[in-house]
Amino acid sequence: MATASMSPTAPALTRPEGGKTMNLQHTRTRTTALAVLVPAVTALAVTVLGASPGQAGASAPATSRTTASPHGQESRRADPAPFTLWAPARVEITLEPGADRIWTDLGIRAVAGPDPVEVRSHRATWSSPITTTWTAGTRSGTAPTGLQRNFEGLTNFVRLEVRSRSGQLVLTRRVDGCFNNGAERTRPDAPATSPYPLGCPWNPFTVGSVQGIQAGWASPIAAVSRPLRLGRGRYDVTISVNQRWADAFGLPAEARSRTTRLVVTEDAHSTHDHPRANGGSPVPDLGPHPSPVEPASPTSGRVADGPRPDLRSLPAFGIELNARSTHLRFSATVWNAGDSPLVVDGFRRETEDVMDAYQYFFDTDGDQVGYQQVGELHYHHANHQHWHFEDFARYRLLRADRTEATTSGKVSFCLANTDAVDLTVPGAQWRPETTDLSTACGEPTSLAVREVLASGSGDTYAQYRAGQSFRIEGLPNGWYWIAVEANPSGRLVEQSTTNNRSLRRIHLGGRPGARTVTVPQVGLVEEEYRVMR
Q: Residues with Cβ < 8 Å from 73, sequence gap 6 or more?
């Protein structure tokens, strides 16, 4: 039962915090520590053929590219596929005595060819399926509609089939694939850094994502979200790309699977740590700290012109009651869909735990062109222990007729890029700075702080944080709306204020001390829990 409308480019809805979920782009992705030993082996990479632009059907025929030979004669060579599949010849796992479960991604890699492979996914409305396209140089393709079910990765991208040495099938597992789960260079002349994000978005109301593997780089693609139930022994593992995904990427039949030998022992072995990409900071490079000197005037520069942030809210989620059913808890996200970051600098008043807040503006080259005073920051001692900006968001519980029933105690916020919401919007920063509260919100002794919400990123407060709840004692059973509103006082300068509010419909039932909350699904968006007691 969808309750919120969306613009053609993205939804006007909300997200979570609670003390605020910290560094969610990195820590909430489905990645696991690898306990594998990958000895030096010959790579099993195979040159495969790419799909022609837009093709997503059966295995694509070879395409060719004309090149000049050293003698001036034209020659033709087959275009490589967007990526090749690689797996080590042997993987060894150390098993704790008496254990029968192991964590491993088996070392499976997708290796980019001469061009970066980039995968973009987007949904137009909450009721629309996710569409996914890929590009690699001059080649491109489109995945079948509905093949990808969420933004946490390519749904059921590979299948693992584990057999004993006698050939008996021991287990099978379908695993999602994320091209952003860490990467490494595969050749000395590959680019020094990768521009692609770290991790795939976890937020159920994410709108768009970008995955990619830099040219000459490789990325683990099968982060196992739960352990494999295997005991001591030797196994033959076949790793196969899902047929529909293989068709979409134009992989020929002989390149759709790899095999590896899995040895599970109780002997001690060293582990192999896989390096992560070390891409640089996005542009503009705003830096972690502002000047400690407050501007001489409350406004300066071309405040009304140029790129602007555009604050929007996602539907509330993670909705539940506390143990005594006296409070309705929820998570909420406000994100920036504009073509410029939201930058707020705070400058401390000499004898107070208060900072005057200024919003800064940038041109298309990332150069600062103006600023405007937009309110205050206060040091939040209880639960959060950092500086909070006033007037960033507001939470209200509305009755069925949308009149106000109660409000949340949460009235101030620390801006941080906790997770990606839509990395396909113009100007989106794929690797934003200040992704956790320890770097974004300052210390008690700070003279100044800089808080940033990058384009394409969201700021989520989870339901366990102070203030992320409504007191429902005394409220009758019935239908209500959780309203999440960005920029409620209109002090921040943004592209539009017509898309700042999202509504999430809920139903309160039960009796005092044993209340229930029912949360209808929004469109096609799947959440882990929708009915809570």
A: none
DSSP labels for 212-227? EE-TTEEEE----SS-
**Secondary element (H or E) of residue 246:** helix 243-249
Q: Range with the lowest mean pLDDT among 31-40, 145-154, 303-312, 522-531?
A: 31-40
Q: 């995955």: which residue's tokens? A: 211
Distance in angstroms between the alpha carbons of the first and the last residue of the chain: 20
φ, ψ of residue 246 to 5 degrees: the values are -60, -40
Per the DSSP assignment, residues forming a β-bridge with 388 are 378
Q: Compute the distance between CA of residue 47 and CA of residue 251 in angstroms, rounded to an integer.
A: 10
Q: What is the DSSP letter of 253?
A: G
CA angle 479/482/484 to nearest 5° reads 160
The DSSP letter of residue 189 is T
| Cβ atoms 171, 230 nearer than 8 A | yes
Q: Which residues contact 474 (CB under 8 A, 6 or more apart)?
A: none
- Of 200, 107, 209, 187, nearest in space to 423 by CA: 209
pLDDT of 304 over the 60 cut: yes
Rounded to whole angstroms, how far apart are CA atoms 3 and 312?
A: 16
Q: Are 463 and 319 in contact (CB under 8 A)?
A: yes
Instruction: Give the whole-angstrom CA distance, residue 165 versus residue 162.
Output: 10
Dihedral sign for Cα 62, 68, 73, 74, please. Answer: positive
Range in 42-51, 375-384, 423-432 the model is least confident about: 42-51
Region for 301 from its dihedrals, namely left if φ exceeds 0, alpha if ψ lies in -120 to 50, beta otherwise:
left
Backbone phi and psi for residue 438, each to the nearest 5 degrees, phi listed first: -65, -25
| pLDDT confidence of residue 296 | 78
**pTM (2 decimals)?**
0.72
Q: What is each CA distance from 505 to 381, 485, 508, 519, in whole angstroms?
A: 33, 15, 10, 7
User: What's the mean pLDDT in 227-243?
Assistant: 91
The tens digit of pLDDT for each residue in 345-359 reads 888 887 777 888 889
For residue 458, what pLDDT band results from cuts at 50, 70 and 90?
very high
Q: Per residue in 96-105, pLDDT tens?
A: 777 888 888 8
CB 371 within 8 A of CB 300: yes
Place of tokens 């339901």: 463
Which amino acid is located at 381 in the chain? H
Domains of the chain with bracketed CATH: 35-62+77-265 (no CATH), 286-532 (2.60.40.2360)
> 3 or 462: whose pLDDT is higher?
462
3-state class (DSSP) for residue 438:
helix
Alpha helix (H) ranges present in 20-129? 24-27
Coil, strand, or helix at residue 248?
A: helix
